Amino acid sequence: MNTEVNTDKLIEDLKVVIRDAEALIKATSAQTGEKIQEVRAKAEESLRQAKVRLTEAETEAVRRAREVADATEEYVRENPWQSIGVAAGIGLLLGVLISRR
């Protein structure tokens, strides 16, 4: 679960970086000169690679989420009474914690 949160945070951070880089490239489009063109080309390539990695990370996150959901569903189907007991126990624990406030 912590890995999922970290992955989601990384994906969001990458989206922000991509938006910022696109804005920077757009803002410097009127700038001329060999050095600025070289830097823009590097930035555009880095941006392209970041978009590819972001797509791959999102695809992987969706795949993992489906695997976890499938495994959970399989466990519940194979162990319905244990699943009900665990759910009831968690519900009881949450109820106790909430009632203490």
Give a structural overview.
With 101 residues, this protein is mainly α. It has one domain. 90% of the residues lie in helices and 0% in strands. The radius of gyration is 23 Å and the shape is elongated. The model has no long low-confidence stretch (mean pLDDT 83).
- Taking the alpha carbons of the first and last residues, their distance comes to 26 Å
- Please tally the β strands and state the result: 0
Structural class: mainly alpha
User: Uncertain segments of ≥5 residues (pLDDT<50)?
Assistant: none
Order of helices and strands: HHH
How many helices does DSSP assign? 3
What is the molecular shape? elongated
